[in-house]
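User: Please predict the structure of the protein below. I'd like the answer in structure-token form so I can feed it into my own downstream comparison script.

Assistant: Understood. Taking the following sequence of 262 residues as input:
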Amino acid sequence: MNARVLEGPEEVSKHVVILHGLFASSDNLLRLGKHLAEGYTVHLLDLRNHGNSFHVSDMNYLLMANDVNEYLTHQNINSVALIGHSMGGKTAMQYALSYPDTVEALIVADIAPVEYKPGHVQILKGLEYLANYPPANRQEADTALNKFVEDVGVRQFLIKNLKAVGEESKKLGWRFNLNAIQSNYYNVLAAPVGEEFNGPTLFIAGALSDYIAPEYRDITTKLFPHAQLKVIPDTSHWLHAEKPQVFNALCERFLYKHFISQ
């Protein structure tokens, strides 16, 4: 499992694991990682089939939580705080439900522990189109994606995942494993499973996003009885990118109260 590790101060032995969302990589939360590295050792992980991590055919939250556990075991880390955005938030929730004794604090960014309806149909069509007709550069990719995805911010987010295909190729391909994501898409939409995690938990929502809806409150408090909710105004699903200072400060304060001071 690929990881970017940002070493904290020598006198601090606390570890924070940060998990990215669908179609993303550890780079997307690097700003948060650098901010928190002032007080913690930060591990930014590429989840399976994303970033520079391994590609496999199977992909679900139990498997991804186990990947995180294997990484931490290999690093001899037995106590962490977890932060995850979107798919990474569900992975973090699943890890906390599966390995509750190892999690001191949990932060979930703009996702709830529920099964969602499909919402990436056009994005997947655009990604498949570029896989079949590889662009020569990012401008060409953006022009092609515009036929499927109107939001320029989403297009730019996706295009970050393009890389040169082969040493001599002048074409670009997807860094993530598109075939595996497509075949396991309904597993990505699924809810984490387990009984409950009783540790301190913070959900951070974007006020303009509908990923954390009022009707999800009961199932959230059932699985995470000590959950708190903070809402960032004028912010969509990409809250960590749109309001990084606010988002980073919320994470920092919560961790200081429930993690570093313990």
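That's the full token string. Residues 195 and 223 are 6 Å apart (CA to CA).
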